[in-house]
Amino acid sequence: MLIMPSLGRGRIDRGWRIAATGLSFALFGLGGPIVAALISLIYLFYALIPQDKHKKYELARFILRYTFKLYIGFMKLVGLLTYEIIEPERFQTPGNLVIANHPSLLDVVFLFSIIRNANCIVKESLFHNLFTLPPIRAAGYISNSDAQFLDKSAESLQACSSIIIFPEGTRTRAGEPLKFLRGAANIAVHAKCDITPILIECRPATLLKNQKWYDIPAQPPHFVFHALPPISIKPFLNDDLMPSAQARKLTQYLEDFYRNLLSH
Amino acid sequence: MQNKDAIFQQLAEILEELFEISPEDVKPESELYGDLDIDSIDAVDMIVKLKQLTGKRFEPSEFKSVRTVQNVVDVVYDLMVSEA
């Protein structure tokens, strides 16, 4: 009998959080298009102002960043999650190539709310979608099928944008061996830039691949975003090897690096 | 590099040298992307190597519809024959 009250509270709390989760998804669905429309309008005005394109991207990214900050703030306020950021200054190095593991659906929102002037590589299909094209163009995101994607990425880093990449290419599949795609390493080799690895932890796990949105954990998840010391590109640059071969070696290193981190 | 067998051997050597792909895994029907994990960036380097070895000029666009190892061999062979 003594356990009953807390059990009851737990249920109410969980019921509330399921409702709040639904509300959060609804907000994302409704607020997303509004912010996208706003950025699209700005994008139309861009055509009229003669200004450096990278400066223009910064405005769109600023709006996106604060939208995501607001969204995360809302979810924290209603008790859906807690989070902490370790070594916050490492996230803000200008012209940073940032990679991270990808345990949860919210990782993207979090990283784009944290990192200033963030660029990313997006699926080609989003360039053919009437709703996603204008904001993507306004923010200067790069298509993964662009033949110039390596040059554009290097140029973006040169212009002090940070590029965020999840080398797994999709959310982590629990229980499956870690497998990295080579895009991030190819950019690092091409641009000769260091890599800032981020370790994301989310306990208990939530919003996993193949998980229903209302299937929420008993406790609100706690997210940790830990920026680790940069990985120098120097040891991986080798003129005797083709760039693709250098990128393969670097990818192997990064994969082992994360496998080691995640096994603890 | 007069015949397709020789081109195939050369290609297998390139794949081993560049991407550490074991020659036993390289079969004519092997798909570059699916079976051998060769992406578009790798393909560019592979074509550069093929150019060096054959002394022929290839345009990456000529490899656009290539899917399998045999396709690569055929394209290289056709280019060499047509230029001979």
Automatic annotation (TrEMBL), chain A:
UniProt xrefs under SMART domains:
PlsC
Biochemical pathway: Lipid metabolism
Tell me the superkingdom of the source.
Bacteria
**Where would I find the Phospholipid/glycerol acyltransferase domain in this sequence?**
96-203
InterPro entries for this protein: Plipid/glycerol_acylTrfase (IPR002123)
What parts of the sequence cross the membrane? 21-46, 66-86
Keyword Oxidoreductase in the entry? The reply is no
CDD domains, sorted: LPLAT_AGPAT-like (cd07989)
Protein name in the entry? Acyltransferase
The Gene Ontology terms for molecular function here are: 1-acylglycerol-3-phosphate O-acyltransferase activity
- Please, one GO biological process term? phosphatidic acid biosynthetic process
Q: Which Pfam families match?
A: Acyltransferase
Q: Coiled-coil annotation: which residues?
A: none
Listed A to Z, the keywords are: Acyltransferase, Membrane, Transferase, Transmembrane, Transmembrane helix
Transmembrane in keyword set? yes
From TrEMBL, chain B:
Q: State the source organism's domain of life.
A: Bacteria
Q: Name one Pfam family in it.
A: PP-binding
Record-linked InterPro entries: ACP-like_sf, PP-bd_ACP
Residues annotated as domain Carrier: 5-80
Please report the name of this protein according to its UniProt entry: Acyl carrier protein
